[in-house]
Amino acid sequence: MVLITGYMVAEVVGGVLSGSLALLADAGHMLTDAAAIVMALVAIWIAQKDASPERTFGFQRTEVIAALANVLFLWLVVAWICYEAYHRAFTEEGVEVVGLPVLLVGIGGFGVNLAAAWILHRSSGESMNVEGAFQHVMADLLGSVAVIISAALIMAFGWNIADPILSVVIAVLILFNTRKLTGTIFHVLLEGAPAHIDVLKLCSDIEEVEGVTLIHDVHVWTITSGNEAFTAHVLMDPSYQGSREEMLDRICAVARNNHGIAHVTVQLEQSVADCTENHHVDHLAAIVREANKPKRFVFI
Questions:
Q1: Which CATH superfamily is domain 199-291 in?
Q2: Which of 16, 91, 92, 248 has the fewest CB atoms in 10 Å of its CB?
Q3: In this predicted structure, what is the pLDDT of residue 92?
Protein backbone atom coordinates (compact mmCIF):
# COMPACT_ATOMS: atom_id res chain seq x y z
CA MET A 1 0.00 0.00 0.00
CA VAL A 2 2.86 2.36 0.82
CA LEU A 3 4.60 1.59 -2.48
CA ILE A 4 1.48 2.18 -4.56
CA THR A 5 0.24 5.25 -2.68
CA GLY A 6 3.66 6.94 -2.71
CA TYR A 7 4.14 6.51 -6.42
CA MET A 8 0.54 7.45 -7.16
CA VAL A 9 1.30 10.91 -5.73
CA ALA A 10 4.38 11.10 -7.98
CA GLU A 11 2.25 10.22 -11.02
CA VAL A 12 -0.34 12.88 -10.19
CA VAL A 13 2.38 15.51 -9.88
CA GLY A 14 4.06 14.30 -13.07
CA GLY A 15 0.75 14.20 -14.94
CA VAL A 16 -0.19 17.75 -13.93
CA LEU A 17 3.25 19.19 -14.75
CA SER A 18 3.55 17.38 -18.09
CA GLY A 19 -0.12 17.55 -19.12
CA SER A 20 -0.26 13.77 -19.61
CA LEU A 21 -3.67 12.15 -19.32
CA ALA A 22 -2.01 8.73 -19.51
CA LEU A 23 -0.12 9.46 -16.30
CA LEU A 24 -3.24 10.75 -14.57
CA ALA A 25 -5.18 7.70 -15.78
CA ASP A 26 -2.54 5.35 -14.41
CA ALA A 27 -2.51 7.31 -11.14
CA GLY A 28 -6.29 6.84 -10.92
CA HIS A 29 -5.85 3.12 -11.39
CA MET A 30 -3.15 3.03 -8.72
CA LEU A 31 -5.59 4.81 -6.41
CA THR A 32 -8.03 1.93 -6.88
CA ASP A 33 -5.21 -0.52 -6.13
CA ALA A 34 -4.46 1.25 -2.85
CA ALA A 35 -8.18 1.36 -2.06
CA ALA A 36 -8.47 -2.37 -2.79
CA ILE A 37 -5.69 -3.16 -0.32
CA VAL A 38 -7.20 -0.89 2.34
CA MET A 39 -10.63 -2.46 1.84
CA ALA A 40 -9.10 -5.94 2.05
CA LEU A 41 -7.46 -5.09 5.38
CA VAL A 42 -10.63 -3.49 6.76
CA ALA A 43 -12.79 -6.37 5.52
CA ILE A 44 -10.49 -8.94 7.15
CA TRP A 45 -10.69 -7.02 10.43
CA ILE A 46 -14.48 -6.72 10.32
CA ALA A 47 -14.92 -10.37 9.27
CA GLN A 48 -13.17 -11.48 12.46
CA LYS A 49 -16.04 -10.16 14.59
CA ASP A 50 -18.08 -12.86 16.29
CA ALA A 51 -21.45 -14.04 15.04
CA SER A 52 -24.66 -12.98 16.77
CA PRO A 53 -28.31 -14.09 16.79
CA GLU A 54 -29.02 -11.36 14.23
CA ARG A 55 -26.02 -12.28 12.03
CA THR A 56 -25.50 -16.01 12.33
CA PHE A 57 -22.54 -15.96 9.92
CA GLY A 58 -21.08 -12.85 11.51
CA PHE A 59 -19.56 -10.31 9.12
CA GLN A 60 -17.76 -12.78 6.86
CA ARG A 61 -19.49 -11.46 3.73
CA THR A 62 -17.83 -8.07 4.31
CA GLU A 63 -15.00 -9.17 2.02
CA VAL A 64 -17.44 -9.77 -0.85
CA ILE A 65 -19.14 -6.41 -0.34
CA ALA A 66 -15.76 -4.65 -0.24
CA ALA A 67 -14.72 -6.37 -3.48
CA LEU A 68 -17.98 -5.29 -5.15
CA ALA A 69 -17.47 -1.68 -3.99
CA ASN A 70 -13.96 -1.79 -5.42
CA VAL A 71 -15.22 -2.98 -8.82
CA LEU A 72 -17.87 -0.24 -8.96
CA PHE A 73 -15.22 2.35 -8.15
CA LEU A 74 -13.03 0.98 -10.94
CA TRP A 75 -15.86 1.41 -13.43
CA LEU A 76 -16.23 5.06 -12.42
CA VAL A 77 -12.51 5.56 -13.04
CA VAL A 78 -12.87 3.95 -16.49
CA ALA A 79 -15.76 6.27 -17.36
CA TRP A 80 -13.71 9.33 -16.35
CA ILE A 81 -10.67 8.20 -18.36
CA CYS A 82 -12.74 7.58 -21.49
CA TYR A 83 -14.50 10.94 -21.16
CA GLU A 84 -11.22 12.84 -20.79
CA ALA A 85 -9.61 10.88 -23.63
CA TYR A 86 -12.52 11.70 -25.97
CA HIS A 87 -12.38 15.34 -24.95
CA ARG A 88 -8.64 15.60 -25.66
CA ALA A 89 -8.72 13.63 -28.90
CA PHE A 90 -11.52 15.62 -30.52
CA THR A 91 -11.00 19.18 -29.25
CA GLU A 92 -9.40 21.49 -31.77
CA GLU A 93 -6.82 23.05 -29.48
CA GLY A 94 -5.54 19.76 -28.04
CA VAL A 95 -3.21 19.52 -25.05
CA GLU A 96 0.56 19.71 -25.27
CA VAL A 97 2.27 16.84 -23.47
CA VAL A 98 5.88 16.99 -22.28
CA GLY A 99 7.31 13.56 -23.05
CA LEU A 100 10.40 13.27 -20.81
CA PRO A 101 8.64 13.56 -17.41
CA VAL A 102 6.03 11.08 -18.60
CA LEU A 103 8.74 8.62 -19.63
CA LEU A 104 10.61 8.88 -16.32
CA VAL A 105 7.51 8.54 -14.18
CA GLY A 106 6.27 5.65 -16.33
CA ILE A 107 9.54 3.74 -15.90
CA GLY A 108 9.41 4.31 -12.15
CA GLY A 109 5.78 3.19 -12.04
CA PHE A 110 6.66 -0.03 -13.83
CA GLY A 111 9.25 -0.84 -11.16
CA VAL A 112 6.87 -0.03 -8.31
CA ASN A 113 4.06 -2.13 -9.80
CA LEU A 114 6.45 -5.01 -10.34
CA ALA A 115 7.46 -4.92 -6.65
CA ALA A 116 3.83 -4.62 -5.51
CA ALA A 117 2.79 -7.55 -7.71
CA TRP A 118 5.53 -9.70 -6.19
CA ILE A 119 4.37 -8.84 -2.66
CA LEU A 120 0.66 -9.49 -3.36
CA HIS A 121 1.26 -12.68 -5.34
CA ARG A 122 2.29 -14.55 -2.18
CA SER A 123 -1.25 -14.40 -0.75
CA SER A 124 -3.41 -13.68 -3.80
CA GLY A 125 -5.04 -17.11 -3.65
CA GLU A 126 -6.24 -16.72 -0.06
CA SER A 127 -8.60 -13.74 -0.34
CA MET A 128 -10.97 -12.37 -2.95
CA ASN A 129 -9.87 -8.84 -2.09
CA VAL A 130 -6.16 -9.61 -2.28
CA GLU A 131 -6.72 -11.40 -5.58
CA GLY A 132 -8.53 -8.33 -6.87
CA ALA A 133 -5.70 -6.06 -5.74
CA PHE A 134 -3.15 -8.36 -7.37
CA GLN A 135 -5.05 -8.34 -10.67
CA HIS A 136 -5.27 -4.56 -10.53
CA VAL A 137 -1.53 -4.27 -10.03
CA MET A 138 -0.92 -6.61 -12.96
CA ALA A 139 -3.10 -4.38 -15.12
CA ASP A 140 -1.10 -1.42 -13.80
CA LEU A 141 2.06 -3.09 -15.03
CA LEU A 142 0.60 -3.08 -18.53
CA GLY A 143 -0.63 0.46 -17.94
CA SER A 144 2.91 1.56 -17.13
CA VAL A 145 4.08 -0.01 -20.38
CA ALA A 146 1.39 2.02 -22.19
CA VAL A 147 2.61 5.20 -20.47
CA ILE A 148 6.20 4.49 -21.51
CA ILE A 149 5.14 3.84 -25.12
CA SER A 150 3.06 7.03 -25.12
CA ALA A 151 6.01 9.10 -23.89
CA ALA A 152 8.36 7.54 -26.45
CA LEU A 153 5.97 8.32 -29.33
CA ILE A 154 5.51 11.90 -28.14
CA MET A 155 9.26 12.48 -27.79
CA ALA A 156 10.16 10.79 -31.08
CA PHE A 157 7.35 11.95 -33.38
CA GLY A 158 5.39 14.58 -31.45
CA TRP A 159 2.29 12.37 -31.54
CA ASN A 160 0.28 13.89 -28.69
CA ILE A 161 -2.70 11.82 -29.84
CA ALA A 162 -0.90 8.76 -28.50
CA ASP A 163 -1.60 9.97 -24.95
CA PRO A 164 -5.45 9.79 -25.07
CA ILE A 165 -5.35 6.63 -27.21
CA LEU A 166 -3.16 4.78 -24.73
CA SER A 167 -5.29 6.16 -21.88
CA VAL A 168 -8.23 4.32 -23.42
CA VAL A 169 -6.02 1.22 -23.63
CA ILE A 170 -5.47 1.50 -19.88
CA ALA A 171 -9.24 1.85 -19.35
CA VAL A 172 -9.88 -1.28 -21.41
CA LEU A 173 -7.27 -3.15 -19.35
CA ILE A 174 -9.07 -2.11 -16.18
CA LEU A 175 -12.41 -3.36 -17.51
CA PHE A 176 -10.91 -6.63 -18.69
CA ASN A 177 -9.20 -7.05 -15.33
CA THR A 178 -12.49 -6.72 -13.42
CA ARG A 179 -14.33 -9.25 -15.60
CA LYS A 180 -13.31 -12.36 -13.65
CA LEU A 181 -13.56 -10.69 -10.23
CA THR A 182 -17.05 -9.36 -11.02
CA GLY A 183 -18.21 -12.82 -12.07
CA THR A 184 -16.83 -14.33 -8.87
CA ILE A 185 -18.54 -11.70 -6.71
CA PHE A 186 -21.99 -12.22 -8.27
CA HIS A 187 -21.53 -16.00 -8.17
CA VAL A 188 -20.92 -15.80 -4.41
CA LEU A 189 -23.82 -13.38 -3.83
CA LEU A 190 -26.15 -15.69 -5.80
CA GLU A 191 -25.05 -18.59 -3.55
CA GLY A 192 -23.49 -20.47 -6.46
CA ALA A 193 -21.48 -23.60 -5.81
CA PRO A 194 -17.73 -22.94 -5.48
CA ALA A 195 -15.86 -23.59 -8.73
CA HIS A 196 -13.34 -25.92 -7.07
CA ILE A 197 -16.01 -28.23 -5.62
CA ASP A 198 -17.53 -30.91 -7.87
CA VAL A 199 -21.03 -31.16 -6.39
CA LEU A 200 -21.95 -34.25 -8.42
CA LYS A 201 -18.81 -36.04 -7.22
CA LEU A 202 -19.54 -34.95 -3.64
CA CYS A 203 -23.01 -36.47 -3.83
CA SER A 204 -21.71 -39.69 -5.36
CA ASP A 205 -19.00 -40.01 -2.69
CA ILE A 206 -21.54 -39.62 0.11
CA GLU A 207 -23.85 -42.19 -1.45
CA GLU A 208 -20.92 -44.63 -1.32
CA VAL A 209 -20.98 -44.40 2.49
CA GLU A 210 -22.39 -47.57 4.09
CA GLY A 211 -26.08 -47.25 4.89
CA VAL A 212 -26.76 -44.28 2.61
CA THR A 213 -29.53 -44.80 0.04
CA LEU A 214 -29.86 -41.32 -1.44
CA ILE A 215 -28.65 -37.78 -0.88
CA HIS A 216 -30.99 -34.92 -1.82
CA ASP A 217 -31.84 -31.27 -1.04
CA VAL A 218 -28.16 -30.47 -1.55
CA HIS A 219 -26.86 -26.92 -1.14
CA VAL A 220 -23.22 -25.87 -1.49
CA TRP A 221 -22.19 -22.22 -1.34
CA THR A 222 -19.38 -19.85 -0.40
CA ILE A 223 -19.67 -17.76 2.74
CA THR A 224 -16.41 -15.92 2.07
CA SER A 225 -13.04 -16.76 0.50
CA GLY A 226 -11.87 -20.16 1.74
CA ASN A 227 -15.03 -20.81 3.77
CA GLU A 228 -17.59 -23.03 2.07
CA ALA A 229 -20.81 -24.46 3.50
CA PHE A 230 -22.72 -27.63 2.67
CA THR A 231 -26.18 -28.81 3.73
CA ALA A 232 -28.06 -31.92 2.62
CA HIS A 233 -30.70 -34.46 3.53
CA VAL A 234 -29.53 -38.08 3.55
CA LEU A 235 -31.92 -41.01 3.22
CA MET A 236 -30.83 -44.00 5.30
CA ASP A 237 -31.20 -47.62 4.28
CA PRO A 238 -33.86 -49.18 6.59
CA SER A 239 -31.73 -52.31 6.93
CA TYR A 240 -28.66 -50.39 8.12
CA GLN A 241 -27.52 -51.84 11.45
CA GLY A 242 -24.95 -49.22 12.44
CA SER A 243 -25.50 -46.14 14.55
CA ARG A 244 -26.70 -42.82 13.14
CA GLU A 245 -23.73 -41.07 14.76
CA GLU A 246 -21.21 -43.28 12.93
CA MET A 247 -22.91 -42.65 9.59
CA LEU A 248 -23.05 -38.93 10.25
CA ASP A 249 -19.34 -38.87 11.14
CA ARG A 250 -18.40 -40.69 7.92
CA ILE A 251 -20.53 -38.34 5.79
CA CYS A 252 -18.99 -35.25 7.39
CA ALA A 253 -15.51 -36.73 6.92
CA VAL A 254 -16.15 -37.15 3.18
CA ALA A 255 -17.27 -33.52 2.83
CA ARG A 256 -14.45 -32.11 4.96
CA ASN A 257 -11.49 -34.30 4.06
CA ASN A 258 -12.22 -35.16 0.41
CA HIS A 259 -13.81 -31.88 -0.70
CA GLY A 260 -12.44 -29.28 1.74
CA ILE A 261 -15.80 -28.06 3.06
CA ALA A 262 -15.51 -26.68 6.59
CA HIS A 263 -19.17 -25.99 7.46
CA VAL A 264 -21.20 -29.23 7.10
CA THR A 265 -24.83 -29.75 8.13
CA VAL A 266 -26.53 -33.09 7.35
CA GLN A 267 -30.06 -34.20 8.17
CA LEU A 268 -30.55 -37.97 8.33
CA GLU A 269 -33.95 -39.30 7.22
CA GLN A 270 -35.60 -42.69 7.00
CA SER A 271 -38.35 -41.43 4.65
CA VAL A 272 -38.83 -38.50 2.28
CA ALA A 273 -42.56 -38.35 3.03
CA ASP A 274 -42.24 -35.39 5.38
CA CYS A 275 -39.51 -33.61 3.38
CA THR A 276 -41.04 -30.44 1.94
CA GLU A 277 -37.93 -29.04 0.23
CA ASN A 278 -37.18 -29.35 -3.48
CA HIS A 279 -35.46 -32.66 -4.10
CA HIS A 280 -32.19 -31.68 -5.77
CA VAL A 281 -30.95 -34.91 -7.33
CA ASP A 282 -29.02 -33.54 -10.30
CA HIS A 283 -26.25 -36.04 -9.70
CA LEU A 284 -28.66 -38.88 -10.47
CA ALA A 285 -29.70 -37.20 -13.73
CA ALA A 286 -26.01 -36.81 -14.63
CA ILE A 287 -25.36 -40.50 -13.99
CA VAL A 288 -28.32 -41.44 -16.21
CA ARG A 289 -27.12 -39.13 -18.99
CA GLU A 290 -23.65 -40.65 -18.81
CA ALA A 291 -25.03 -44.18 -18.90
CA ASN A 292 -27.22 -43.41 -21.91
CA LYS A 293 -24.46 -41.89 -24.00
CA PRO A 294 -23.87 -43.84 -27.23
CA LYS A 295 -20.80 -46.04 -27.04
CA ARG A 296 -17.82 -44.97 -29.11
CA PHE A 297 -15.68 -47.62 -30.81
CA VAL A 298 -12.12 -47.08 -31.92
CA PHE A 299 -10.92 -49.20 -34.83
CA ILE A 300 -7.19 -49.79 -35.07
A1: Cation efflux protein, cytoplasmic domain (3.30.70.1350)
A2: 92
A3: 45
